[in-house]
Amino acid sequence: MNISDIREPKQQRSIEKKKKIVEAGFKLFSEKGYHNTNTAEIAKEAGVSTGIVYNYFKDKKGIFLMAVQAYAERIIQPVFKSISELRSPFDLTELLEKFIEALIESHDLSRTAHEEMLAMSHTDEDVRNYFCYFEETTTNTIVKLMEQHGIKPANAYEKVHIAMGMIENLCHEIVYHKHEYMNYEVMKKEVVSAVVKMVSDQH
Amino acid sequence: MNISDIREPKQQRSIEKKKKIVEAGFKLFSEKGYHNTNTAEIAKEAGVSTGIVYNYFKDKKGIFLMAVQAYAERIIQPVFKSISELRSPFDLTELLEKFIEALIESHDLSRTAHEEMLAMSHTDEDVRNYFCYFEETTTNTIVKLMEQHGIKPANAYEKVHIAMGMIENLCHEIVYHKHEYMNYEVMKKEVVSAVVKMVSDQH
Amino acid sequence: MNISDIREPKQQRSIEKKKKIVEAGFKLFSEKGYHNTNTAEIAKEAGVSTGIVYNYFKDKKGIFLMAVQAYAERIIQPVFKSISELRSPFDLTELLEKFIEALIESHDLSRTAHEEMLAMSHTDEDVRNYFCYFEETTTNTIVKLMEQHGIKPANAYEKVHIAMGMIENLCHEIVYHKHEYMNYEVMKKEVVSAVVKMVSDQH
Amino acid sequence: MNISDIREPKQQRSIEKKKKIVEAGFKLFSEKGYHNTNTAEIAKEAGVSTGIVYNYFKDKKGIFLMAVQAYAERIIQPVFKSISELRSPFDLTELLEKFIEALIESHDLSRTAHEEMLAMSHTDEDVRNYFCYFEETTTNTIVKLMEQHGIKPANAYEKVHIAMGMIENLCHEIVYHKHEYMNYEVMKKEVVSAVVKMVSDQH
DNA sequence: GATGAATGAGAATTCATTCAT
DNA sequence: AATGAATGAATTCTCATTCAT
């Protein structure tokens, strides 16, 4: 299945109904997980009949995919916005710290949802493809924003990708893992420091 | 459920039967995923009856948990072994490169299995706990091995944890993602370089 | 349901719309079978809305019934026409052979449609009734045409009915069954011969 | 699907359970038709759980196929038996008349079942294949029995096949159609006469 | 007359787990 | 300890028909 297969309703009312279904799906997937949520429940939560769901979505996973998109965009938009509003010169360390704070907050808002999406990204091709696409877009955007502020490291794409992975890991660690012996403030400092070094390195 | 709930058979024949079930489960989970494998299939693959499975395991997930453990140990033992055989002084960069090569190979051998486990680690508490425990053990072991070779950075646990995350991300990226615009050799070099810098940094 | 329940539109535009629906239905039933065709598809194929279908037809089966009628008439009209154009004296054997050829061709044109209709004639009373009615009409017409050419066997109705059944079976056999050990040329000859004998027999 | 795919239970209890399911299916298909009978009902009627049905049958159609076989054999065995008990010389006309009587009786016993099967034979490949196979077997058996009594017409297979078709049509006509203007006694006589002529004809 | 979104009952099938043997 | 037949709840998706617009 391709994301573009999902029908795009043209009428305003339909658009809203579709949105309602996605929201209902997101809510339930977040609360109980994908496999423990059935379409009837989603329909009920959305206040529609079970049948109509399949007018808007190819199948249950279609709802999930839309929810993933909506979620990902909701998370990333503020980040982009705040970066694009930066005025040079700025302190990279400080920026990264703010960035991490923002991400942690987002994760905190919908832990289970995020976990479910990651889980699905490991087993479902469509979800994996979307995540892939999302990572690429994000990486590209960040590299461009960096250029605009005069930060042009060698191997920019690779470095940004690595840095994003580190930050994602860190947030994940802080929000979920609770390795008790780990000092999260220290970790954050180390991550920021490593990222700054990597990005600053012109080889 | 707790891992210790799983009954430990004392008889030799029983131990082997249990092992067979775990192996069968691992094979099928790897090939088809957790949700697409049913207990009857596992029993058949293991050459036992469906009923007996529940003498050895509390439920289907119990088999999965044991399979995860077996898998994780199979992956990590060679790594530990090779590190412990190191003779000082050694080249950290080279070591990390070998380490990464070995991990990529392991991932390659059982991609689906690994993916399934990660997926489950996001949704199932028992699996998450095991991963957590595994990470702690690994981190501790590595920190100790490092000390034995005279590498004693500040914030050792945090640094090792971050480094492990970076390496895991890298391997994952290389084995599965195939972001086409990414140069994996460059990425590898950057990761190794960042890790070396981080670990070498005495603050 | 009775065929006469189906509303007869008086307006020209309506008549054409109804015809279009029947044609769309016939096409799809032929291609995919009655049970695998849904009314939405029929409406779409006909270029009308799903709702309007129920202005013209009591239900889905109503469309099927009309399609059956249209089909039956399309098949039988050429046969009647060619018979009525006969000039006495004519060779009965030759006539039957031509007749059979024509029927085989018709069957070939819409195998699935024909099969679907037969299938429905076995389980649906309305369809059965229509087939019954159609058989009676055909029998009557043929008996009359025979009389006009001086062929007046005893038990004419029964004989014609039996002969029609034989010919129908033959065509069916040739078009669908493919019993491999059967020589269809021989079969055709035997059927013609049996029919000729039966009809010629004045008792 | 192939008939041989259906699992053959080895245990006596299993065989009986399978038989029960087939009988329940046959009963319900007969009463309400294939499409109006669901597996839950069949299971209930058979006194088993819905799940177990799928231990014995690949799917719902599997039950139907078994029922068709059981039915066909139940119908044809007495016919074969009575023919094989014949002592030459015998009166062909009389034999055919008895044969027809017997068939009509069989049809009468399970009209709906028979109709359902015919209907399915038109739309389902597996059912069609079974009918095809059944017809071949029957034709072969009859040709052989005829030979044993010294009846060896030219084109025996074709003639027998045609005759069987005529008789089947006749029975069908008598049992279901009720074309009111048709005299069934006359029809029967005509069919018997036509068959006798065809079979007696040595060309 | 016309639209097409909406309904919601319905149905086949699966499968973790149990239990009589 | 071992078997594997049996359970039956649970779930996704379909579709003839209706009805608000």
Molecular structure report:
4 copies of one chain form a homotetramer. Chain A is mostly helical and 203 residues long. Chain A has a single domain (3-200), classed as Tetracycline Repressor, domain 2 (Orthogonal Bundle), CATH 1.10.357.10. Chain A contains 9 helices and no strands. Chain A has helices at residues 12-32, 39-46, 50-56, 60-84, 92-109, 111-123, 125-148, 156-177, 184-200. In chain A, helix 2 (39-46) crosses helix 3 (50-56), helix 4 (60-84) packs parallel to helix 7 and helix 6 (111-123) packs across helix 7. Chain A is elongated, with a radius of gyration of 19 Å. At the A-B interface, helix 6, helix 7, helix 8 and helix 9 of A face helix 6, helix 7, helix 8 and helix 9 of B. The first copy, chain A, binds a DNA duplex (21 and 21 nucleotides) through residues 9, 11, 13-14, 17, 38-40, 43, 48-55, 59-60.
Which helices and strands appear, and what pairs or packs with what?
The structure is a homotetramer.
Chain A (H helix, E strand, L loop, with lengths): L11 H21 L6 H8 L3 H7 L3 H25 L7 H18 L1 H13 L1 H24 L7 H22 L6 H17 L3
The first copy, chain A, binds a DNA duplex (21 and 21 nucleotides) through helix 1, helix 2 and helix 3.
Largest interface: A-B, 42 and 40 residues
- CATH architecture classification name of chain A: Orthogonal Bundle
Largest sheet of chain A: none
Oligomer state equals homotetramer
Distance between the termini of chain A: 43 Å
Under the CATH scheme, which class of chain A? Mainly Alpha
The CATH superfamily of chain A is known as Tetracycline Repressor, domain 2
Number of strands of chain A: 0
Helix share bin of chain A: over 70%
| Shape call of chain A | elongated
